[in-house]
Write a structure and sequence with these properties.
Blueprint (H helix, E strand, L loop, with lengths): L3 H16 L2 E6 L5 H13 L2 E6 L1 H10 L13 E6 L5 H12 L4 E7 L2 E4 L3 H5 L4 H42 L1
Antiparallel strand pairs: 1-3, 1-4, 2-3, 4-5
Helix pairs in contact: 1-3
Length: 172
């Protein structure tokens, strides 16, 4: 018979998995308290929730959200990084953190309902942010307009320069 604490944790995890745009399942064993605290602080600064959880409770929450296929990633010590806004932000935080530390290792990823192996983590971490993509789009859209303005303006400048040169020649 499950106790009320576990039931509440499954309900909480079910809700969080349902709302999250991305879930990164990580292996955290081997990190000391200082490193985990630094990682949590970095996650918090990027609006990502990092939670250590029991595999059995996470399996039940995944089943409640109809996420089949997570069982192979739920072994050993498990912590999840949940992102409710930007699905790539946990990957960027983990990438930056693993430059200085060997852990945590990403075991699996749930990205907008799709389940992927942890090996996809680096590809996701290298994706540009939404703001970067919007800036690139704005630059691409404004470039032809700028070239058109210069193309239209150039003949007028040439005519003005020719008239100015003609005026200078007539005055000499």
């Amino acid at each position: 018979m499950p106790n009320t604490k576990n039931i509440q944790q499954v309900e909480e995890l079910t809700d969080k998995l349902g709302r999250a745009k991305a879930v990164y399942i990580t292996e955290y064993l081997g990190l000391n308290v200082e490193d985990i605290t630094a990682l949590r602080r970095e996650f918090h600064a990027n609006d990502v929730e990092f939670k250590v959880t029991k595999n059995t409770l996470l399996k039940l929450a995944a089943k409640n959200n109809e996420l089949d296929g997570l069982d192979e990633y739920l072994s050993g010590s498990t912590a999840v990084a949940l992102s409710y806004e930007d699905p790539t932000s946990p990957a960027r935080v983990l990438k930056q953190f693993t430059k200085d530390h060997d852990l945590p290792e990403v075991k699996g990823i749930v990205f907008d309902g799709d389940i992927m192996a942890g090996s996809e983590f680096k590809r996701i971490a290298d994706m540009p942010t939404k703001d970067q993509l919007l800036a690139q789009l704005a630059a691409l859209l404004s470039s032809p307009m700028t070239k058109l303005v210069w193309a239209l303006k150039s003949p007028m400048t040439d005519v003005g320069n020719a008239l100015s040169n003609l005026k200078d020649q007539k005055s000499n």
